Amino acid sequence: MTEFGVVQVPAAALSFATEVRRLGAQFAIDHFGLQRDSLRQLHYLLPHYVKLAPVYTKELSENKDTRFIVSSLISIALPLEIGVIAQAVESEAAILLLDELGFAGYQGYAHGRPVPIG
Q1: Which of 62, 64, 86, 111 could form a disulfide with 106 if both were Cys (CB 3.0 to 4.6 A apart)?
Q2: What's the pLDDT tens digit per position in 42-96?
Q3: Could you tell me if 29 and 2 are in contact, meaning their C-beta atoms sit under 8 angstroms apart?
Q4: Which of 36, 39, 33, 23 lies closest to 2, judged by CA?
Q5: CB atoms within 10 A of CB 14
Q6: What is the maximum alpha-carbon separation in the chain?
Q7: CATH for 3-106, among 3.20.20.450, 1.20.1070.10, 3.40.190.10, 3.30.430.20?
Q8: For residue 97, which of 45, 44, 57, 41 has the smallest C-alpha distance?
């Protein structure tokens, strides 16, 4: 689900998260970090992972304040067993920085554009 959707109808998001876990499945929150109550959502929804909004990924290498915010988010998410996935990763240098910060994974064209199978 998107973070915007979670913020718009928090009771429905919590109900959905509870039911998904009851059924033995997992869920994620996409475009995480854009809403005011982002961190609060981690504690009451406990998603399997969050996909960090691309705006943060794009600023990681140049902006130390962004690195601090993101590393703080990862420090909060790790004990809750919530992975943090970076979006819009476009270079090998970015992958090294993500690894250093403790990201669980990434999404983007750093290793090339998608190609057809077969």
Answers
A1: 86
A2: 888 999 999 999 999 999 999 999 999 999 999 999 999 999 999 999 999 999 9
A3: yes
A4: 33
A5: 14
A6: 44
A7: 3.20.20.450
A8: 57
